[in-house]
Structure formats: C-alpha cells, structure tokens
Write a sequence for this structure.
C-alpha cells in the first residue's frame, strides 16, 4: 500500500496508479486541492509550490509539485495553502499578509508565494530581508511588480501578527504557554485560533505538518499501471539488484525528478511537448540512506548521489576552504529554492553526461574542484576515482554507468587557496548560464600563482577544463597578463566555439568568458571589478504616495482587492481549476496537436500511435461542419491538403481521460507532409526584416494607419540639421500565468456552457455559435476570473474555447482544454516586432521642426489584433512632443510565425520608445542636455494633435499635466542630486557605470467601443449582488465596481457580492476587456444601474444616501410595494475625437552596469503618475508597478527568438525570462498627482486609467542602461531588448569586428 499525508490527512492508494503522474496532478484532480496551481510544468514559475517532508528529513522544504512524482512520495507529508488556513476557518498570517498587502492581482501565482514564504519561515536561514528575498528566487509574478509581495512578507519578520495580540499564558494546545507573550514567541506562529485572547491556540507552521508514521519503509515499494513499473528500494543493495534485472535501455533512475521532469525536453528534441518519463522501469533512489550523506575525512569530502543541491550548498558554506565556499555560492544559484530542495547533484550531472550542451553548474563546479566519481555498473560492479570530465565525456562511462554513487573532492593543503565563480544569465536568478567560469588557484605569500584550475561553460560545445590556460597562469605574479587571456582565447577556439545557442552570439560568449577571467585577476589584486556578480541591495523599499477623497469613500481608498484572501488560501477557482476537477467518468481532456513544419502540405494525420497512450477521440478540420474560421482568415484547424503557414498552427485536438496525459498523447500523433512546388507557395520568412525584403505586405484595406500635420517634406528640406535611420524593436510574450484554458459541457436542448479564461466573453459566445452552427442564445459563456491576460486572451482564447466546444458537441461529454506553457508560447504570438524608419529635422537648440516616420510591423500568419496595434503605434507616434510638421504611416507584414496580437500597451510601446530615442540622438548632435531638448518640445495645453488619414483631427490638448508630473518627479526624486552622484560615481569607477534617464509619457484613453453592462440586484435582506460583463483578469475591475456601487447606494462593501460574467445573465452583446478603459466603463455602467435603483428606492422608500431612512428600511418598503430591485446599467461611451482624455506620466530610473559582464541592476525607479482621482489607491498603484515591471522585462530580459525553421526557441520558462523579484528596482517609488481630477467629458468619478500607460514609462530603464553603456565608452546603437549579451556587445562595439 502507498501512503501519503496531505494537510494532516492520510491517503492510502493501491499501488496501481500511473507511476509517472505528478504530485500536483494528484493534489488537484484527486483531492480537489486546486490552490496548488500549474503554471509551467517545468519548475520555473513556483505556482505549484508545496511544503514537502520526507522520511529522510523531518524539516519541511518547498518543492515544485508539478515536477515531483507522486510515486516517490510514499510516507511523505505534504502541506498546501489549503492546509495553512481558509476564509471559512482562519487564515494564516502569511495568507493574510499577501492578500491585505495588495500582493495579489490575478492571484494565480499567489498560493505558490504563500507556500514559498512558509518554506522560508521554516528554514534554518536567519530571518533577514536579504535571505527572504533570495529564497523567493523560484516564484514569478506577472501582475504585481513584486514590491507589494516582498513588503507584505517582510512585515512577518518584524512580528506583525494581525490576528494575535493578546497573551497566551493559558494556552495548552501549543508550546507557547510559558508565560505572558504574544503569538510571535518562538518565531514561527502563523495564526491564533482564539482571536488573540488569553487561552487561544497559537499554532506553529510546524504544527501543521502532522507527524504520523515518518519511519522509512524497510521493504521494496512497487507501483505499476501495466505500462510503467516503479520501484523504491529501501537500500543500495536492493537498488543494484533491481537495476541488474532489466535491460538498461528500459531503466530510468529517479531522485528529485527536477531535470527529467522540467528541462530535459529542451535537450532531447521533444520541446515544447513534455512526453513524460520514457523509461519502462523507474528505480527511485531518493530514500536510500547510503546515498544521503556528506562526509569529510582526512581532507576529502564525499557526497552521496542522493544529496540534494540545498544540502550540498549548506555543507560547503560551513567550510573555511575558499574553493568550497565558492562552490556553495555557485550551487546556491542553480535554478531556484524549490529545485535545490528536491533536486540532487547527481541528477544535474547526469543531464550533463547525456546532453553535452546542458549548462550544468554541477559539472562546472566539480570540474573546477577536480572531483572524482564513484558509480555502479549495470552488472553491479563499483568503479571509483573517475575524473568528472572523463565521466561525462568518455563513451565508455556513458555506456556502463547505471547509478552514480558519490563524488569526492580533496581539500588541498595550504593557506593560499582562492576561488571565484561567475554565472552570466538572462535575468538575476532562476536562469541557466549563458556563460560561466570557475577558477581555483593557490597563491603564494609572494603573490605568485602556484596551482590553478579553470573551468568554463557556454563558450564551447560542453563544459571544459582549460589546462593550457591553467599552465599559463602558473609562476607569474598574480597580475593580469595579456598572454594568459590570449592563451585562454586560443584554447577555447581550439576546443570549438559553441554554435548551438540561438539566444546569444558566440562573440558575446567568448568576450564574456575572457572578461570573467579578468575579473578573477582583479579580485586577486583587490581591485574594483573583482566581484562575482553585480551587488544588489535588498528590494521592496519605496513609497506609495496618494491622496484620498473623504467625500468619495470607499472610492479612492486603498481597499484590498475583492477575492484576494480567497486567492491566497487557494479557494478562488479559475478555469484551469474547473478543468482539473471535472468528473473523469463523464468528461475528457484535450490537447492541441500543432504543425512542426512550415511551407509544406499536410498529407495525412495518423492517430494510431496515440491510442495505446490513452487517446479516446479527436477533433480536426473534418469535424468543422459549419465553417472553419475563428478570427478573420484564421481557421481553427488546418485541413489535410493545406499548406502549413507556420510552426505551431493547430491541426487537431486529441481527447483523453487523464489531464496529465496531454503532451504524451499529443506528441504521439503523426503528421505527414509533402514538399510544395515553389509556384504554389512563397518562400517562408521568419523575421520582419525578411518580410520587408520580400514585400510580404497585407493589403492596404486591412490597415488604416496614417496621421499627419503640416507639411513634413517641405519642412525637412529646410531643416538646418537632420537625422535619418531606423530603429528595431523586439517582440514580447504575454506570459499570463494561467495558460489558455476552457471547459465546455452540454446542456438541455443543444445548449452548451463554456467556462473560458478569456478577456472576451461575448466574442467567445459568438465564435462558438458559428463553429457549432447554433444561435448565440444556446451558448452560455461564463468567466469569474482569469489568471492574467494582457491582451493575449482578447481573441487568442478562441482556439481553446472553440476546440473544447467542438469536442463536447462531437463526443457528448464535457471537454476541458488547458494549454501547456511551452505549447502556449509556441502557438500564441505576442507583441509585434517593429522596424521604424525616421527622418527628423531640428535646429541648433534641439527644437524639432519636422519628422516623418514609417512603421513596419510584423503580424505573423494572420492579422488578428496587429492591425489595431499598428494603428495605435501610428496614432500615439507623436509621443509627448509638439511638432508643426509631422507625418507617420504604418505598413503591416505577414511572416510565417504564430499570429501576433495585442499585448499590453500595443504599438505605442514601440513607437514612443523610438521617438524618445531620437530625442537622445538630437541632444547628442546639438550638444544639449536631454532634459533641455525634451522640455523644449513638450506638448502644452491648447496644442493641436495631428490628423488621421481622412483628415479628422485628433483634437487639441486639454488639461495637460505633463509639466507638473515632470516638475514633481525632478523635485521628489531629487533628479539633479542623483545625476551629480552618478557623474561622481562614474569618474571613480572603471568597471561599473551608472546611468539615469527620465522618460515622459502621454497615453490617450477612449472608452468608445467598450460597451459594457452591469446588473445590480438588491435582495430583501438589503444585501447586494453585482454582475459585470467586464472580465476580471487581475486588474481589480470587480473591486472598483463594488466600490462605486457602495458609494452610490450608500452601503458597506461587505454587503455586496460579485457575480461572474455570464452571457445568460449580465453579459449580452458586450465589448471585450482591454485598452485600460474597461474598468471605468463598467464602473459607469454600475453607477447607471444604481441610479435606476435609487429612483425606485426614493419613490417607494423615501431613501436618499445619507438621509434619515436606512437602506434596509427603504429596501423593505420598495420590495413590499412589489417593485423590482434589479436593474441593468449599460454604458456605451462615445467621443467626439479619437481620445477621451490623456494620462500623463513622468518616470526616472537609475541603473548600474557591470562593464565587464553586461550585468545590470536597477537601483531605483520613480514614477509620477496622473491618475486623476484614483478609484482605488491600492489597485491603481499596483497596476502602475506591475505594468512598469512587465515593461522592464520587454526592455531588458524578454527575448523572442525563432530558429531557421520557424520554431520558437525562447519557449517555456527555461528560455523565456520575465523579470523575477531580484530584477526589480531596489527602491521603487510611485506617486500619484494630487488634486488633479479628470475633467474630461464622460469621466468616471474624475478617475483615469492605469493598466497600460505605466508599461510605456518603463523605457526609462532602457535609456538609463544606455547612458551607462555610453559612460563606459560604448555605442549608442543598443538593441531592444537590451539583454545581457547586447549590453556587453554595445559596450565593446568599437573594439570588436561585429
């Protein structure tokens, strides 16, 4: 019998379940504990974090439950967020802290953060802010910008226990009863069941891990589902005996399952599909005592292969031997806390042996330490003292190693040992190395190097030790010698420079490795630049400044987001949760099969190989009886005979019973292709540059993108100075945390009900009706919340919901479709790459006289939202600068990659950035300060905007608050003082440079087209229910609507509940949710509904807000008169011009740059934001912070790359890197302008939008980076995004043949 303890409950399972099933799948589908989310299935996002206690170690640790095999959890204890507390009982302080501290927006990642925090509080680490921040390296968040999360949790370090303030001297239920004290005694208290009063129960986190039978099983555990056998032997002898019984090709060794479960697919050519464990026999060695120890004897350290990375880090850190300390530092940045807690060093090394290109930090470290390995062969022989480099590269050892047993490293005698290690990555943490270097040396008292070992990764095809370089370092005084660097370069070139990395260039990798070796010498000589990585102060600092209108409460107040506590406790349900908990007896799960070729004809689709793996049925183009299209010319599925337009285009949806079978079933479907004659199809193009070259232009009727003012051509001809050129901007993925998801079930009379993670409820209804050939009245679409959207679920969600509905209609069963993260990234496009040509004329003062722009935008295979993105890029191209002679036109191009679509601040993100770049170039040309050129050209109240193609004016500017934002930014952020400090810093530092940039933003907002409906129902007991057509995607729409209803009706928010968006109730023919305006449009619709109800309450109950008659009495009287207390509010805003009003923003960023490595750290960011009178201070500040950090990712860490076949290379969390907690500004200040209500016609309670404008303001970070690059003598031609490799190449461009 298999036993697992979850949240103190014992679960006994017969040993016949699928041994390859993940712990997360069991928790979610079998136990209904959907607080444990699955965001990536790679261990890269932290959404699935749980606390894990094994028989080997009584201390709970955080792990990724999406990677952990359920079969390896026998006799283990699991704690999920549901086990910490709930809103129905008592929340833990951790859950309450993140919810009430505004640390949850879409909320999909929130339970993972809760459990990571619990893991930290239970860890042996000193409870300091720095340690806490470092511990959270495995959790991502796309919404909040991290600042409120870390600030909320840091309060727990100070003993701020909101629920327990009394004494517990009479408590008998815990160990906190030794006198009078609060629940923080002992350091780990998380809640007090007695409400903080004497006699209450102070419960520790450790109390929640109920210790039942924690003894290690003494007998062999066998689990088999008939396809795969799993064994967990109790000792080493049993393990070796088992291994010898089976053919070695059938055996897979398991311990932590962090490599095979997470990233192996990127090296075995199956990505983005994760095909599961391919071994027929799994031998789990995670519980073998002989493999768990780390010992030191006679100067030799030996670590068993079952030792986790975290335990190895701890052991090495306790040594005073410099190479071991360096090893601890290097291993502490492998992956993340969750992976290090579960993964073993041997598993990491095995990946390096199997896949030479795998950037193994263990292989690098053990190579530098001259480690030797001991392993067992398949026939039970033990082989010892094998050098690690030999073990990983020699075919003999690859062939004969059955099980790694241990490594040994010598603590070499002498006092002169030094070691430095370097790891250069796409973001600060939770990223694999682009380049790594580990140097160990012995330096004599005279300063001569007597012994040296140099190990390097990322530059050659595998991790290498460089003996020639090591010899060149010997005997000389420890000062940098050009001969050493040259020898190092030649040795690397002789080993063969790595050509495999599509994300960085080989010239960067060689340069970075050389510079890391230079940094080692700088360290030896105690000179600047010898640090291993760019130092970062603890983040989470900053101010959030806003004013509150007492007359408008609860509007304007910092009200916590409705549902935040449900999100923190795991009680909040998402579409993905509905999919995981469908009844398996009456339902099916679906997964897309997509094209993996482009430019070829589909000859056939074979499902034969998928049936043995669980395939039940499928839908493809042959099932589309009522039309194939979903958006424009885009079809739901390609048909046999179609020419494939892109990799990642849906071909079919396979259906199966178990959600965890998704990828292996889909991967088993075989698509056959045939070549196509050149006369039938154009040569595929995968980049915008090639699309421009081959003129792959969508017809002009598809796009209307042109604005103008004055006569740009004539003015340019007369301009005394002129700049011409072009700037290229990259793409960006939405990376919403809840991937595309939908669940469809059939109702009576042919009705279908769909739950979809969408931003477009009515659009989903319309598409499904067309696909099924039924009226919209028979399609009910519901959406309570979505785990993020950012524009990616405006139309891209139609694929999932349409396919799920088609499958349900065909099979007569409920069908659930949830995209895998890697497949989601491959199938769904993102922000459009653009190339923007410019011709700008100006005078000697920097005054712009004329400018022409031509925008080239990449749409992908179909148009979808890209026409709108290009239109926005054009309409917003004038930025914040008033130019009398202005022209801008846009052209949209087709490429053979997945369709791009709207992405937060679509189009204007790119166009405003390009224009701002020209301001810097003008300032450089005329020798003026950038600030002076900016201010000289700023728009002012009364200035006239350009006209559209048809001659319609965009209007004139009213209530321009730019100058005030700009002035207050400079005053409150002390810009002049910071600039002087930076100049002083740069004068005294050679290897570090800093830059500062201030960026202005003008963002036009219009609610036109965002028609929305809100239904307000008042019940006889005077409680209220509100239903809105707007989609809650984390932006706080529902909370703002409730605040407005509470204000207008004069009731407490606690009396108001929220109903989901529902096409059978409150969502009829509505617009999509996007453009930053939907919250305001819905709020006005709610106010309209309230006004209708107030009129009835006045007439029949004599009710006025603030009057003598209570709301309850008025409700009773009105209901008693038989009058309806339900009303619909409708809002279909119109505007006489393109924009209803403008949001004004001024932002400053300070960045520090390592000149030798390209690493960058954002020291501070200050945002001065014109929000009018904000609707909700918490939510609006949170949206500003989150948008800024998402923009930071666009400009610094998120690189979208396709290979030569059109396949996405930056796929999954392994290669695509949104910012993490350690990438945010160390000091992050957001200030809302005070006393500047929105006076525009149609304003909603004088508020302004916040969703997208702050995204654009993040360009200040990019310009600050470039200022630092220029301070280092680098090039002005920095790429966007300015990733670590591009930064280093820009610094050295003048010295390299690029």
């Amino acid at each position: 019998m298999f036993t697992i303890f979850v949240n103190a409950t014992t679960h006994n399972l017969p040993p016949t379940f699928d041994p390859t099933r993940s712990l997360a799948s069991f928790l979610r589908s079998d136990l209904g504990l959907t607080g444990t989310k699955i965001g990536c299935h790679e261990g890269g996002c932290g959404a699935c974090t749980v606390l894990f206690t094994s028989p080997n170690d009584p201390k709970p640790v955080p792990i990724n439950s999406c990677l952990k095999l359920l079969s390896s959890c026998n006799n283990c204890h699991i704690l999920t967020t549901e086990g910490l507390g709930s809103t129905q009982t008592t929340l833990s302080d951790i859950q309450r802290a993140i919810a009430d501290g505004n640390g949850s927006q879409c909320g999909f990642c929130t339970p993972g953060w809760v459990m990571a925090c619990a893991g930290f509080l239970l860890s042996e680490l000193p409870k300091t802010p720095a340690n806490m921040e470092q511990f959270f390296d495995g959790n991502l968040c796309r919404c909040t910008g991290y600042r409120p999360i870390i600030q909320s949790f840091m309060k727990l370090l100070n003993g701020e226990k909101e629920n327990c303030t009394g004494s517990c001297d009479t408590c008998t239920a815990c160990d906190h009863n030794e006198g009078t004290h609060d629940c923080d005694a002992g350091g780990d208290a998380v809640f007090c069941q007695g409400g903080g009063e004497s006699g209450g129960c102070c419960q520790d986190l450790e109390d929640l891990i109920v210790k039942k039978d924690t003894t290690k099983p003494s007998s062999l555990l066998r689990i088999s589902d008939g396809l795969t056998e799993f064994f967990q032997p109790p000792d080493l002898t049993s393990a070796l005996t088992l291994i010898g019984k089976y053919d070695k090709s059938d055996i897979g060794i398991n311990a932590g399952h962090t490599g095979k479960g997470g990233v192996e697919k990127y090296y075995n050519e199956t990505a983005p599909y994760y095909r599961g464990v391919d071994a027929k026999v799994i031998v789990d060695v995670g519980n073998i005592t002989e493999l768990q120890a780390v010992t030191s004897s006679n100067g030799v350290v030996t670590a068993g292969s079952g030792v986790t990375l975290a335990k190895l880090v701890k052991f090495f850190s306790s040594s005073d031997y410099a190479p071991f300390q360096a090893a601890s530092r290097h291993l502490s940045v492998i992956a993340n806390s969750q992976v290090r807690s579960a993964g073993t060093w041997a598993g990491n090394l095995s990946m390096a042996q199997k896949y030479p290109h795998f950037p193994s930090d263990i292989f690098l470290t053990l190579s530098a330490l001259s480690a030797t390995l001991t392993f067992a062969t398949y026939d039970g022989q033990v082989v010892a003292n094998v050098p690690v480099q030999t073990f990983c590269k020699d075919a003999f050892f690859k062939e004969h190693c059955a099980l790694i047993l241990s490594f040994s490293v010598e603590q070499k005698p002498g006092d002169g040992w030094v070691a430095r290690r370097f790891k250069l990555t796409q973001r600060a943490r939770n990223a694999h190395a682009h380049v790594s270097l580990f140097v160990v040396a012995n330096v004599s008292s005279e300063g001569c190097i007597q012994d040296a070992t140099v190990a390097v990764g990322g530059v050659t095809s595998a991790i290498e030790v460089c003996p020639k370089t090591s010899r060149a370092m010997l005997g000389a005084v420890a000062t940098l010698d050009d001969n050493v660097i040259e020898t190092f370069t030649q040795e690397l070139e002789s080993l063969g420079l790595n050509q495999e990395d599509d994300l960085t260039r080989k010239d960067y990798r060689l340069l970075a490795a050389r510079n890391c070796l230079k940094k080692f010498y700088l360290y030896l000589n105690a000179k600047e630049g010898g640090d291993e990585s760019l130092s970062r102060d603890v983040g989470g600092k900053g101010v959030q400044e806003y004013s509150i209108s007492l007359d408008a409460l609860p509007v304007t107040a910092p009200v916590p987001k409705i549902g935040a506590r449900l999100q923190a406790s795991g009680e909040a349900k998402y579409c993905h949760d509905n999919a995981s908990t469908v009844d398996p007896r009456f339902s099916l799960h679906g997964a897309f099969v997509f094209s993996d070729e482009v430019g070829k004809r589909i000859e056939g689709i074979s499902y034969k190989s998928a049936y043995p793996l669980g395939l039940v049925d499928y839908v493809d183009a042959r099932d589309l009886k009522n039309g194939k299209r979903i958006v424009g010319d885009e079809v739901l599925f390609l048909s046999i005979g179609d020419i494939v337009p892109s990799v990642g285009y849906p071909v079919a949806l396979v259906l199966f019973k178990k959600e965890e079978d998704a990828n292996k079933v889909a991967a088993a479907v075989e698509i056959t292709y045939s070549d196509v004659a050149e006369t039938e199809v154009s040569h595929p193009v995968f980049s915008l540059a090639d699309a421009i070259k081959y003129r792959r232009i969508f017809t002009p009727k598809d796009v209307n993108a042109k604005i103008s003012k004055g006569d740009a051509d004539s003015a340019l001809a007369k301009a005394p100075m002129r700049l011409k050129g072009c700037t290229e901007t990259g793409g960006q993925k939405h990376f919403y945390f809840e991937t595309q998801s939908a669940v469809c079930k059939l109702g009576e009379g042919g009705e279908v009900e769909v739950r979809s993670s969408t931003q477009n409820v009515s659009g989903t209804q319309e598409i499904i009706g067309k696909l099924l050939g039924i009226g919209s009245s028979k399609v009910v679409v519901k959406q309570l919340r979505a785990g993020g959207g950012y524009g990616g679920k405006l139309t891209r969600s139609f694929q999932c919901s349409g396919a799920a509905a088609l499958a349900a209609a065909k099979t007569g069963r409920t069908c659930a479709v949830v995209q895998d993260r890697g497949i989601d990234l491959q199938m769904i496009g993102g922000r459009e790459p653009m190339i923007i040509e410019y011709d700008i004329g100006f005078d000697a003062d920097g005054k712009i006289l004329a400018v022409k722009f031509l925008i080239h935008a990449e749409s992908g295979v179909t148009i979808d939202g890209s026409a709108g993105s290009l239109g926005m890029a054009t309409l917003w191209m004038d930025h914040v600068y008033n130019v009398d002679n202005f022209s801008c036109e846009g052209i949209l191009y087709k490429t053979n990659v997945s369709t791009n679509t709207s992405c937060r601040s679509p189009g204007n993100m790119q166009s405003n950035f390009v224009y701002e770049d020209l301001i810097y170039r003008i300032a450089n040309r005329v020798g003026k300060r950038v600030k002076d050129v900016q201010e000289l050209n700023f728009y002012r109240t009364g200035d006239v905007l350009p006209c559209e193609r048809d001659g319609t004016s965009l209007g004139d500017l009213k209530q321009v608050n730019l100058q005030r934002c700009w002035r207050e930014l400079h005053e409150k952020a002390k810009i002049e003082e910071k600039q002087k400090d930076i100049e002083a810093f740069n004068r005294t530092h050679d290897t570090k440079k800093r830059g500062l940039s201030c960026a202005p933003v003008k963002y036009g907002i219009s609610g036109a087209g965002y028609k929305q409906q809100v239904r307000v129902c008042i019940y006889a007991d005077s409680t209220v229910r509100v239903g809105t057509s707007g989609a809650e995607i984390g932006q706080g729409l529902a909370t703002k609507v409730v605040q407005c209803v509470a204000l207008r009706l004069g009731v407490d928010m606690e009396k108001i509940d929220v109903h989901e968006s529902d096409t059978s109730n409150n969502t009829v023919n509505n617009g999509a949710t996007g453009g930053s305006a939907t919250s305001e449009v819905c709020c006005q619709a709610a106010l309209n509904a309230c006004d209708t109800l107030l009129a009835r309450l006045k007439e029949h109950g004599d009710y006025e807000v603030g009057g003598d008659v209570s709301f309850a009495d008025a409700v009773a009287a009105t209901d008693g008169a038989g009058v309806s207390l339900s009303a619909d509010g409708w809002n279909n805003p119109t505007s006489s011009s393109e924009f209803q009003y403008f949001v004004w923003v001024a932002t400053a960023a300070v960045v520090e740059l390592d000149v030798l490595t390209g690493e960058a750290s954002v020291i501070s960011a200050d945002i001065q934001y014109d929000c009018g009178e904000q609707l909700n201070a918490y939510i609006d500040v949170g949206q500003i912070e989150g948008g800024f950090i998402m923009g930071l990712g666009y400009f610094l860490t998120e690189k979208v790359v396709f290979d030569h076949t059109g396949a996405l290379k930056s796929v999954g969390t392994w290669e695509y890197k949104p910012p993490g907690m350690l990438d945010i500004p160390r000091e992050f200040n957001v200030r809302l302008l005070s006393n500047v209500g929105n006076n525009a016609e149609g304003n909603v309670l004088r508020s302004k939008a916040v969703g997208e404008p702050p995204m654009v303001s993040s360009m200040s970070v990019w310009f600050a980076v470039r200022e630092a690059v220029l301070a280092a003598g680098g090039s002005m031609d920095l790429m966007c995004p300015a990733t670590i490799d591009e930064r280093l190449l820009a610094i050295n461009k003048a010295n390299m043949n690029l």
Notes: Residues 421 and 438 are 4 Å apart (CA to CA). The mean pLDDT is 92. Residues 1078-1101 form the longest helix (24 residues).
